[in-house]
Amino acid sequence: MREDKRKRIEKKGWHVGSVKEFLGLSPDEAAYIEVKLKLAEGLRRHRRRRRLTQSEVARRVRSSQSRVAKMEAGDPSVSLDLIVRSLLALGASDIELAKMLRA
Amino acid sequence: MREDKRKRIEKKGWHVGSVKEFLGLSPDEAAYIEVKLKLAEGLRRHRRRRRLTQSEVARRVRSSQSRVAKMEAGDPSVSLDLIVRSLLALGASDIELAKMLRA
DNA sequence: GCCTGATATGTCAAATGTGACATAATCAGC
DNA sequence: GCTGATTATGTCACATTTGACATATCAGGC
Question: Can you give the pTM of this predicted structure?
């Protein structure tokens, strides 16, 4: 895996901690995290483009500001389901989701 | 929403039941289900192309045959997370995931 | 018809994700 | 450097999802 990806992952709340632990991730786990982070970043971009606050998004998704913050941070405690639901609630189309994955 | 989509959804285990109930779905919920079903179908195609049984897939993702069956059926009781993890475990790339969404 | 392997369906205790809340950190305009 | 607004982080009771298991249904060869 490329170095920039490692950084990207370590930066987020995955408390990957030691390099050792990081290397302990299977390729599949790493790929999953990548997908999650891409969508998480996509969510943030979408929200900002629409000039919404996290609280406003939370209201639309019937969640809470703290959960939205965690989503955007790619926190391990949030599911892909929630991120995808939120993106859709913000009006993202399937095609936009697809683009995020390719990015 | 187009008729074929409705059929597609009703066919799956979403026990949508009456048209009334179906119409009760918000656009966001419907979009979410669409995403899920697309990936579920993608998972089945992927597995079959590789000539794997559900049990073999289950072993790879450390799940069970019954859960894999439910994934492919788009059962409401399975999360997007699990479906995506499984696809990745079968070697699907981000780009392939993206294609499934566009389909 | 009956095997045999694969897939589907139902259930449940345990694991994981959830919204809500409190509170801390950041930022912007003044 | 205050202040008000936004975002980040931690925690927890409650809800949903999980793997495992039992069991049913299906498909093809015999």
Answer: 0.84
